[in-house]
Amino acid sequence: MTQLESRGLSCLGCTGVCCTDVANSMMVTPIEIVDLFSYLLKSKADLQSLNEKMMVSVIKYKLDILPPGIKKKSQFRRTYTCPFFLGSEFGCPLPRDIKPYGCLGFNRQKNENNIDNDCWSKKEILESQSKANNEAELNIWIKTELNLDWDKEYLPLAVIHFIHLFGIDDNSFENFLQRARLFAPHPLD
Is the model's pTM score more than 0.70? Predict the structure, then answer.
């Protein structure tokens, strides 16, 4: 993202289609939702309101329902407007170091006037980032520790899952983070 911006390819002036149901089908890994949930707790987010906002998104876009004949979410991706998106004027309130790789990786690739159609992800960069951080083992550990049945989940469903799993109890989540740090050194906070 930063390299593209240095070449004049930024999101400034964009309407945010990557965050809307036009193009967004963002799914997160266990590590990514741990990072995001940690941020939400530290920033004292209103988890009850956030849970309601996430539920509206899940229901509106049917994120919890697989179409007939589809057995896994990885076989079919639904688009949805991210509940964190604040509209084209304000964009995403999440800091870069908290955004999932998919959000960071979906960038403007051409320097043309049609900014809304010049954006896409370079999947090889996203995959190399995950490998560079040795995240596979930690994702498996988190899945096992928290009894998650997914490798990737739609962002709203993952947030809801963590709110229900940990609630607003900062201590239970902090205990989990301490166990995770013992398993693998990773900047989980």
Answer: yes
